[in-house]
Design goal:
The chain is an alpha/beta fold. It has helices at about 5, 50-60, 80, 110-125, 150-155, 170-180, 195-215, and strands spanning about 10-15, 25-30, 35-40, 70-75, 130-135, 140-145, 160-165, 180-190, 230, 235-240, 245, 255-260, 265-270, 275-280, 285-290, 295-300, 305-310. Strands 1, 2, 3, 4, 5, 6, 7, 8, 9, 10, 12, 15 and 17 form a 13-stranded mixed sheet that branches. A four-stranded antiparallel sheet has the order 14-13-11-16, with no helix packed on it.
């Protein structure tokens, strides 16, 4: 049985790179011949991509004849960042340019500018764009960002938490919205013992969204998502001092709500292991949107949690 993945037609856009490889390819696959087009993009940040890319490939296990519209997939948008598991491409160092901050790009600019300029036309001829991120190599996330006009799309993706997203200057989603195209930003999963649970959950969310959009046809309607908890403005919790971070709440806590004063984790002195800082839940109901799940060394000012109040 031929799957959607088997039917993908692969294309390459050469993007100028470095001395050893004068160009690297931006690769994308396309399937389907008519109807609404959905573009799914993973790996805009190089330390977040593999889990989202795997979720897209899981979606593509459906039989090819179930594709009622057109599908475009970019599994790795930022290859030079992905190969070193960094957020941004090393080739632009020391500037460390964020691909998700330079859209629609510049074909005569930095490598990252040129990469955005290569992706922008693929966004512009889409009916819907789903931008998949995640916690990445050092943290796990559990939320989706909702944009005006694309509320149902965000709900269908089935993240534990949902929040209204601000416009980010130069952001991929901001550029997409400026063209009047439906868009959602998924921030789910990351490196942890439950990484395949989150990957599979993302794949089910993508299926649900594409069925509603008329891009995918299935025999029975997908199961409805667990109702996402609406949260207000997000809050970052950072280290006051560097040291050894020891989580009290582990990976199973992301995507849940914990009561006020719940101990979340602590920082110990690197030399003496004396307790330097304790993180506790600050709200009567504290939504755990992002967290570090593993023991690690961190610098002062490092991001440790992102939390919010349910609304």
């Amino acid at each position: 049985m031929k799957t959607i993945y088997d039917s993908l037609r692969w294309h390459e856009i050469p993007v100028t790179a470095h001395a050893a490889a004068q160009h690297i390819p931006l690769k994308y696959g396309e399937a389907g011949t008519g109807g609404a087009r959905a573009t799914l993009i993973a790996g805009t940040h190089g330390d977040e991509g593999p889990w989202s890319a795997l979720a897209i490939k899981m979606l593509c296990r459906h039989p090819a004849d179930r594709l009622a519209g057109r599908l475009r997939v970019i599994f790795t948008a930022n290859a030079l960042a992905a190969e070193v598991e960094r957020r941004n491409s090393w080739i632009d160092s020391p500037n460390s340019i964020d691909l998700d901050g330079v859209f629609p790009g510049n074909s005569a600019g930095s490598h990252t500018d040129r990469l955005a300029a290569s992706i922008a036309p693929l966004i512009a001829d889409s009916d819907v764009v789903i931008d998949l991120h995640g916690g990445g190599t050092w943290c796990i996330n559990a939320f989706v960002k909702r944009f005006e006009g694309s509320e149902q799309l965000a709900a269908d993706l089935g993240a534990p938490f949902i929040t209204n997203a601000p416009n980010k200057r130069g952001g991929l989603t901001t550029y997409t919205r400026s063209l009047g195209i439906k868009v959602a930003n998924v921030e789910v999963g990351g490196r942890c013992g439950r990484e395949m649970y989150w990957t599979e959950r993302n794949a089910r969310g993508l299926e649900r969204a594409l069925v509603r959009l008329g891009v995918l046809a299935v025999d029975a309607p997908p199961s409805p998502p667990e109702k996402a908890i609406d949260v207000g403005a997000t809050e970052a919790m950072r280290a006051q001092v560097g040291g050894i971070f020891v989580p009290t709440l582990r990976e199973e806590a992301v995507g849940t709500i914990v009561p006020m004063e719940t101990e979340m984790g602590k920082i110990l002195d690197l030399h003496t292991l004396a307790e330097l800082q304790v993180f506790t839940a600050p709200h009567e109901q504290t939504a755990m949107m992002l967290m570090r799940p593993q023991i690690c060394t961190i610098e002062g000012s490092a991001l440790v949690y992102v939390i919010a109040k349910p609304t």
